[in-house]
Predict the 3D structure of the following.
Amino acid sequence: MSTTQTSRGADRLRADDARTEAPPAAGLKAVGGVAGWLDDRTGAAKPIGYLMKKVFPDHWSFMLGEVAMYSMIICLISGTFLTFWFVPSAGQVVYDGSYLPLRGVTMSEAYQSTVNISFDIRGGLLIRQIHHWAALMFIVALSVHMLRVFFTGAFRKPREINWVIGCILSMLALVEGFAGYSLPDDLLSGTGLRAAEGFMRSVPVIGSYLSYFVFDGPFPGEAIIPRLYSVHVLLLPAILVGLFVAHIGLVFVHKHTQFPGPGKTNDNVVGFPVMPVYAAKAGGFFFIVFGVLALIAALVTINPIWAYGPYDPSPVTAGSQPDWYMGFADGALRLLPGWLEFNAFGFTFSFNVMIGAILLIPVMYGLMAAYPFLERWVTGDEREHHLLDRPRNNPTRTGLGMAGLTAYGVLMFAAGNDLMAIKLGLSINDITHILRAAFFVAPPIAFWVTKRICLSLQRRDRDLVLHGRETGRIVRTADGRFFEQHEPLDEYTRWLLVQHDKHEPLQLTAGTDEHGVVSPTARKDKVRAALSRFYFEDRIDPVTPAELAAAHHDGHALEAIEEAPHEESGSRPALESARREPPKRP
Amino acid sequence: MSDNGTPHGEVVGHDSDGYGATAVRLDQGHIEGTGGLPERFENPGLPPHVARMADHDEKAAKRAEKQVATLFGLSSLFTIVFVVAFFAIDRESTTFIPGIGRTSLYNVVIGVCMAIALLGVGVGAVHWAKTLMPDEESVEYRHTQRASDEDRQRVVSELTQGGEKAQLGRRPLIKYSLLGALALPPITLVVPLAAGLGPVPKDALSKTMWKKGDRLVRDPERTPIRADQVTIGSVFHVLPESIKDSEHVLEDKAKAAVLLMRLNPEDIKPQKERDWGHEGIVAYSKICTHVGCPVGLYEQQTHHLLCPCHQSTFDVTQDCKVIFGPAKRPLPQLKITVDSEGYLVADSPFREAVGPSFWERGHA
């Protein structure tokens, strides 16, 4: 038997809140010595006491950022271990270690030390594999975390700055990953660096200088390994950790967002306090992430550099693939057609390389970082948002996100065009042509399909609120008719389906004042109104109490509800009329 | 005539018109607020709390306690097993794991021990939190991020007063010279960095070590190749013989690597390609004109060269023209001939820059 308490309103909660404080003095004696000594010198009791009471909301998707954070910490721990044995030098040596197939082969010290870590250092292979898997996990987790933030609208005011910081973190993580991947100086990563040198050359005007500056002369040179090493272990980790601290600090300042639900409002955080619940859950979760990575590293080989051999500019590496997070950029390079390179004014413009290799990543992250500001401008919404959107309740944003994700996915697939051709027995030329077309065709389709799915889900929500649940009980009325009984939703379940904002397109104000003077912002307003229409023209409004009352009042109205053109409701007629009256030109 | 019909056959008096005064018609879209109903639903507050087994059943709580302690104990146990295995297991021995294959026993055992040692703590702590720690929600209240108007005003006035006290406004000489003094000094770091990073390429990107009379040698054996050793359909990975004297082997190799193929001379379409080769033997730069990967895959039947990185495809019968993929330019051909002993030699250096494009390539 479970005991239940009666439902509590927000005011009762406020009263409850005081009770959750730990009884004072308990344990004070035991820790009084050390803690008291520290507090005498730092006054840390107050902020620590505040932090321990801090409330975090509970949702599985909030763990994605945690996975990213922990993976990063595991990278730092395992990476420090690796620095004790890794030799960041391109100096050539002849291998004489315990891995027989490579005996007598000339290789760089970087490669030799990586082979040694894998075969001669006890536990070295495990830590190396943990490091690589943790790096992959880091980027997977932060990418999915980013998608969660995007699709739930968690980037809205006041969190725009944190979204931008997150975008920079994500972009730097790619660079950090690529730098680390290149350090062992094996054939596969060396080929990656070879391509990177080609990327740099494609930059207009300064390309060849850039390449010579980065590689200290002709490729490969002896400088790139130690330079990448200092970037990988010092420069980028310092920036990543700094930005990460700012990121998590802002989460504390803003307090975590929460999903809508009964009892949750834009003005509160409902969840569990750090002490003891989140200390145990989040602390335990670190060990779970670490344990899972250790398990993967124990069982699944990653980047067996001993099988690739040391870097040499001449040998073949069929099926060359970068780590997954560089796949989309590699795919872009495979899809970009050769005619984008041309000569003009005696100079070579190599856009077939530059678009995919130099511009794609900053442009992609630039668009992502700009999105919150665009959406805020379009919606004109200046409020703070601490309650998350269910993705279906903002169909246009969700659709745009899916369109972007689809474009990314097409590029990702393109990076595997050779593998697909081999495994599926298809023509690589056909695959490439299809993916080229898909890059332009698939995102709009994805947008449209996603938006329709969102609207349908919203309709279903409305339907559920108005009709209630189907009980499966068939009732026969006195006059012989049959109908299925519907059970109304309880108010808690219903709240989730009716709590969201009603969206309306911005009204287009007349572009001229009463004297016929054209407003200086007329064009901007028009763009804004058009975008606003694009966002909110098709929409389903949440059920109102009046609508529910009508549905209850009259069973036959159910059909009417289904027929009702909800999308055509609201202020659209007003906007229509505004559209019909274009601003007069003087 | 319908049963409830009027003389005009219209269906009237049906319920669809009979809405009560307190509600709205739903098929006319969105009309709010009639009948004294609130415009929106109201937040019902937190749902009633459902207690867990361990909250009221001491047996269940005890069971949870034992589970947590077992997980923690498992963690300690496997730390010890880890240490034992770390020293005891022979690192050369391998094991077969279904679904994964043959793998290092040492790595698997210490890795799994480490995983269990970590997972024991983690799962134990989470289980503890979920079964025994309080699961009643707490509520914290939010405040808008913006500081109060007084605070904002105070900061602004402190700043302006600070500026005034420092006489920033009254002494423009200091103001403008300070701007320069703050903006320029970083140049003292940037200039040495930029100047020290690397040499200027000059024409190095356009030149390889190939010169007239340089023998073609196999890579990596470095043995010279006689024309009669190159049979139709074969392909040789080739370097210049002078690579043996090179002080920068990898750097020179990265530019000078060449592929040597023999085609039936009738299959070769352009006259220039035939002229630059020797009896159907042709030599082309192996460095892809896209981003520089070695173009390593040769299809004997079609005489296509394929770059494994981004799948640019070059047709050897058409002077290595690009027939597919992201590369634009054909692979540069190396003009070859035979020397007095019958060995293949370069007849001239490459006539254009090999490898990926760059801005001033046309000036080479």
Remarks:
- Helices of chain B lie at 53-56, 58-88, 105-131, 149-165, 172-183, 187-197, 249-256, 271-276.
- Residues 58-88 of chain B form the longest helix (31 residues).
- The radius of gyration of chain B is 41 Å.
- Chain B touches chain A through 124 residues (CB under 8 Å).
